[in-house]
Design brief:
The protein contains 18 helices and 10 strands. It has 357 residues and is α+β, with helices and mostly antiparallel strands. It has 3 domains: 107 residues, no CATH class; 61 residues, no CATH class; 164 residues, Glutaredoxin (3-Layer(aba) Sandwich). The longest helix has 19 residues.
């Protein structure tokens, strides 16, 4: 099972609060650079922030060239920064939640003191603690601390209502917490539901598009489940996004791009072609290729990747999953009870017969 990394959520949260254009064009790169400059110490840590400053995001040259971050660095620190360039690339991409840069190019220059940051209200200690727990699975200690701080700050911000709700759930008493969590165990407004609205049984599936076990569920379980339970009116299935990495986040947004009528067709297509696009030289471009048959063209896909409304939906799914304790995919809830990944169709049918309505 794929453990969900907090990195994807950190990038999603940043996108939610900043409105950064995703990629392509000088306007998108300029907005990304402004945001990166503002949060540079939180992205790379105080040590690197003292000797480096983001200077520009450079477009790639040639058909296969990636973008590069031009980084101003003090002369004495240039060699050390060069050795850590791979780490910088990783942290920048984790911050945005998708691949923004592929390389770092150093230019020597005088590093002036950073502008004084505006005062931000200190988050409630309970919210800070909740966000630190969410980031606990990230191995890089500096990135873990940075994402915890960013999450807590966003929870305090007026646009951080989704993360704030999660923090509030985490700090409730046991009885109140159970009541708050119960709302996520039924179809929510905006959920993608397969089956008749009045079907008595509810299966909620938290899935990541880069998770091989989720692809197995789609191939080996869904056909029989749909034939014998969903199409017969006995079960409705709710698909919720729980991306485990940046490319899974992109796939979730592209599935949303297909629209409500074609959403489950997009889910099936993405999972059936998982090996094809995940092993391609450019998985992101290959994803667009496999979805072209559903009417998701390149221009439409790029617009969807920059659509805050679609991103809010993915974030809402992730936050509901975290509130319910989801930490791997697939995780199934059947009639309000958690079953993790119970296995094949026989195991799921046995559960339905035991707890079915």
């Amino acid at each position: 099972m794929r453990e969900n990394g907090f990195r994807a959520i950190g990038g999603l949260a940043q996108k939610l609060t900043s409105g950064i254009a995703r990629e392509g064009g000088k306007a998108g790169r300029g907005a990304s650079l402004m945001r990166l400059k503002a949060d540079w110490p939180a992205v790379v840590g105080p040590e690197l922030a003292r000797t480096t400053r983001p200077d520009a995001i450079l477009a790639g040259r040639g058909a296969r060239a990636g973008k590069a971050l031009r980084l101003k660095v003090s002369g004495a620190a240039a060699l050390e920064v060069q050795h850590r360039s791979g780490q910088i690339v990783e942290r920048v991409n984790a911050y945005f939640g998708h691949r923004v840069i592929d390389d770092v190019r150093l230019v020597q220059g005088v590093i002036s003191a950073p502008p004084r940051a505006p005062k931000v209200p200190r988050p409630d200690p309970a919210v800070e603690q909740a966000m630190a727990q969410r980031a606990a699975s990230v191995k890089d200690p500096d990135l873990r601390a940075a994402l915890a701080r960013l999450g807590a700050r966003i929870a305090t911000d007026r646009r951080g209502f989704l993360l704030g709700t999660l923090g509030a759930v985490a700090t409730l008493g046991l009885g109140d917490r159970a009541q708050a969590q119960r709302q996520f165990l039924e179809p929510l407004p905006g959920d993608h539901v397969l089956g008749k609205p009045d079907a008595p049984n509810v299966l909620i599936d938290y899935a990541s598009f880069t998770c091989p076990h989720c692809a197995t569920f789609n191939a080996a379980v869904m056909p029989a489940l749909k034939r014998d339970w969903i199409d017969t009116g006995k079960l409705k299935l709710v698909h919720r996004h729980f991306p485990s990495d940046a490319i899974a986040t992109r796939a979730s947004l592209l599935a949303e791009c297909a629209g409500p009528e074609k959403f489950f067709a997009a889910v099936d297509t993405i999972f059936r072609t998982q090996v094809q696009w995940m092993t391609a030289p450019d998985p992101a471009a290959e994803l667009m290729t496999v979805l072209a048959g559903l009417g998701v063209g390149e221009a439409e896909a790029q617009a969807c990747l920059a659509n805050d409304r679609l991103l809010d939906k993915v974030i809402a799914d992730v936050q509901s999953g975290q509130a319910l304790g989801v930490n791997s995919t697939p995780t199934l809830f059947i009639n309000e009870q958690p079953y993790g990944n119970p296995g094949g169709i026989d195991a799921i049918v046995a559960i339905l017969r035991q707890v079915g309505r």
